[in-house]
Structures are given as structure tokens and as C-alpha cells.
Amino acid sequence: MEWEYAAVSQGVRILRAFGEAECLEVPEVIGGRPVTEIGPYAFSAAEVPRRFRVSGGDRRRGVTGEGEGTELRDSLCLGDGPEAGPEAVTGSRLRAVRLPSSVRVIGDYAFYGCRELKEVVFSDSLERIGSGAFMGCSGVDRLVFLGAGGGSRGLYQMLSELRYAMEVFLRRPEGETALMVPEYYEASVENVPARILELHYQGTGYRYRQCFCGGEVDYRAYDGLFGLAESQEPPEVLARLAYDRLRYPEGLSDGARRAYLEWFSVRVREAGEYFLKRDDLPALRLLCEAGAFDGTAKGSRRGQDADEGRRAAADGAGDFYMASMGEQILGEAEPEPEASGDRESPEAALDVLTEMAGRMGRTEIVSCLMDYRHRKRRGGRKKVFEL
Predict the structure, then answer these.
(1) Which of 34-43, 48-57, 84-93, 337-346 shows the lowest per-residue confidence on average (mean pLDDT)?
(2) Average pLDDT, stretch 107-132?
(3) What's the order of all strands across the beta sheet hosting 119-123?
(4) In angstroms, rounded to a whole number, what is the distance separating the alpha carbons of residues 296 and 218?
(5) pLDDT in tens, 211-255
(6) DSSP states of 201-230 as a string?
(7) Is 163 exposed, middle or buried (0-12, 13-18, 19+ CB in 10 A)?
(8) Closest alpha carbon to 283 in 252, 232, 245, 256
(9) Which position has the higher pLDDT, 75 or 48?
(10) Is the C-alpha dihedral spanning 137, 143, 146, 149 positive or negative?
(11) Any idea which of 138-152, 227-241, 276-290, 322-336 has the lowest mean pLDDT?
């Protein structure tokens, strides 16, 4: 890779990258100086505005490769016109980027329009992100935060820049944690009498991004939003969110753990579809061992309709709807007598999941689920036969 850069007061500012790679690892040192900044429009395919341009005499190029280190090639950057040589890695060419721990600043619109960018790796040394740095990066679905005890302020800034649903991995010396952060978007609503515009946030993603206290993740506040997310987020987001908290239970209270496990039991069809389509056997095995499918799944269609009624009421249904469904929703009505044989009995969540896996042809998962069910029912005891 060839890196176009300019010297700044405390190190080096990256201006452009040239080469064939689509996944970039920005070097920590070029020409003996630390890389401290990602320059404005550095990875954007848009033309760099004149106020951000660096004169040819101040630009340099460094070459990095496996086991080669870096070297200076000043003669390649003597003018302001287009350069001959490798194509710039900008815009839709960029798929992933890893920033070294030396980077303190990401300049304005540095990744503007990188629609194919999927993953960003950065560290807690990041101090400032410029305006619109990740504007148009709608494909980012994975952040990897490398912490060394310096707090999570850089993570808070990064999440504030990216409003899309994504999985965040926090890697620290003491271990790794993963969090699913839902999407949100802003809507401007005009308050006509006052003649002002009010900014409204749609989706729970904005609230999840505020779960920081003193620069660290507030897991209690994060888990406390799950009830709200159930009424607003799609099942695939909820499934990943709950799974990540059970897989990495840092700061997870007993009450929050029970809430996540209960969601899997009640919403086994939605959760099962999410993991089965991805053929994610390790996830299903972990959830089974945690007891996520030991409860009762939603049974009859009538039960599903009642559940949808509760959600609609929680979302602000009108008085007429509440009057027609009120007793059933509020739980004040007497339970109906059991029918003689027509009523569908509640289904065990594990049985529902096993049936789904069989229909989708996931034989390895079916075998795993049947083995778990056998061990649970037998209490882990094995029969011994003597001849």
C-alpha cells in the first residue's frame, strides 16, 4: 500500500491511500513519525475542497507492506494534479478499516460516501471526530473498540456519528464484550403555532447510544431499555441484542437475564428463524444451555392476537380500541373455560425450535437440540447396560 501524508505538529496526517486492498490497516508509524490524524476527505471519493488541500511540496508518500515497514518516496508528490500509479482506495472500494492506537483525530468527511464500508476498528485514544466524518456510511454494521483503560469516550463519539443498527465489540485486556445497538433516525416536525422546528428521534437506537456514564458503558441503563425495544425493534435486532447480553454477561443483573431468556421462550419462532437461517449452531447451543428455550412458546393464534393487541395499546391506540379490548388486555376478565378438545395447548419452546430446524433441513442443529432435550429430561443420567 502507498500512503499519501503530510507532517503535522505532533505526527503525520493521512491524506490518501493507494493500492489494490479493500480492507485497510492504517500504519502506526510512517517515516519515523506516528500517524495521529486521518485527514479531511481522506477516504472519500468526493473532490477535496480547496480549503482542505495540501500543497504538493508538503505532501509525501510512504509505502507499507508485509514485513517491509515504511519508506519515503517524496518524488511522487511534487504537484497538485492527478498522480500516475495505483488507484486510490476511496468511496465504494473501501470495505473495512483499522485505525492504530496513535490516531487522535478523524477529519471532516473523512469517510464521506463510503457506502460499502462494513467494519471500523479503532481505539480509546480517539479524541475527536470531525463533522460528517461517516456521512453516507450506511453499510457499517460492526464496530470494534480496542480499549486499554482510557475510557469509552471515543466509542460514544463514534456511535453518535453512526445511526445505523450495528454490533459493537469492546475488547479490553480483561476480556471482550459485545453489544447490539439498534438504528434510529431524526425527523423534523414543524410546530406551526410557535413557528419552530422540533427534532424527534424515531427508534430506540438514540436512547441506547446514551447509555454511558463517566465515559463507560452503563449496562444497567442498557438492559433497562429492552422492554421499550420489544415494542419498536424488529425480531432480528432483538434476537441479536438478547443473545449478545447472554453471551457476554458483563454487568448483567439476574432480572435482566430472566427478561432476555423469557423473550427467547415466548418469541422462539422469530428467534429460531434468525439463527437457523444463519446456521448458527454455537449460538443455539449456548442459548439452550442458558435455558432460553425451556419455557413455553406462544401457542394458539388467539394468544398471538392478544399479544399484538397489547403492543398496539402500548403504542398509543385510541379509546375505542381500548374499550373493545380493554378487559382482555388489562387482565381483568375471567379466564375462559377450557374447551373440550378444540383449543390448542401451549407448545414447549424447545419442541417448536426442533420442528423448525427439521423443516429447514438443519440436521446438525436438530441432533444438538434432541441431545439437549434428552439430557434435560433425564437429568444428565446415562443408562448402563450390562451383558
Answers:
(1) 337-346
(2) 94
(3) 23-25, 96-98, 119-123, 142-146, 166-172, 175-181
(4) 31
(5) 988 778 899 999 999 999 999 999 999 999 999 999 999 999 999
(6) EESTHHHHTT-EETTEE-HHHHHHTHHHHH
(7) buried
(8) 245
(9) 48
(10) positive
(11) 322-336
Please report where in the chains the cell 429492552 appears, as a residue.
Answer: 226
The pTM of the full predicted model, rounded to 2 decimals, is 0.78
Instruction: Give the confidence band of 54 by pLDDT, cuts at 50, 70, 90.
Output: confident
User: Considering the domain boundaries, does residue 78 fall inside one?
Assistant: yes
* Interatomic CA distance for residues 135 and 282, integer angstroms: 35
The β-bridge relationship of strands 105-106 and 59-63 is unpaired
Q: Is residue 190 part of a domain?
A: no
Grid cell for residue 96: 473495512
Count of the separate structural domains present in the chain: 1
What CATH number did the domain enclosing 4 receive?
3.80.10.10
In a domain, 201, yes or no: no
- What is the grid cell recorded at 121? 476498528
Mean pLDDT of 124-142: 93
Rounded to whole angstroms, how far apart are CA atoms 329 and 321?
Answer: 11
Class of residue 25 by CB neighbours under 10 A (exposed 0-12, middle 13-18, buried 19+): middle
Helical H segments across the chain, by residue range: 153-161, 205-208, 219-224, 226-230, 235-247, 254-266, 268-277, 281-290, 301-314, 319-330, 349-359, 363-378
Nearest alpha-carbon partner for 180 in 146, 210, 141: 141
Q: Which residues contact 318 (CB under 8 A, 6 or more apart)?
A: none
pLDDT given at position 334: 44
Task: Give residue 36's domain range.
Answer: 1-148
Q: For the CA atoms of 259, 264, 270, 275, what is the dihedral angle to 10 degrees?
A: 120
DSSP-assigned letter for residue 381: -
Q: Is residue 234 part of a domain?
A: no
Residue listed under C-alpha cell 493507494: 18
